[in-house]
Amino acid sequence: MDTLLERRYAALVRFYSDDAPAALWARTEVDRPDDFRQLQRLIVPRSHDLRPDATLCLLTLYNEMILRPYRGQLSTLGGDRLPSPSIGRSRDEFFERVEQSLDVIFARLADVTERPISSHQVLRAIDGGWPQLSKIFGWG
User: Where along the chain do its domains lie?
Assistant: First the structure.
């Protein structure tokens, strides 16, 4: 894994710890409402065959594991601002990658016979599409 992205994931993990200092929250802007609304616009209209748990699974995974690590403004405990990975710097290019990755997932979900589609099937589609998803986001 890219070391910068690993540091950014580690910064986000600290938000979930019981001893996360309030100063960390004050120095870190992880929410970008316009970015999240764009994410919703890319996922929700395509979710007509998904159960609510499956739609929520996609929204939360993309928000927590892709949108925030790539686009959020994150700082270390020492106060140093972590630079954004190159993939997250251009909003338009970033969301093109998000859309490409969703195309991979929804193409795999098209083959699922179970309707409505469960969150388990979404996870299986992600797992099956991992080689393509890794290339899209530079994970491998």
Answer: 3-137
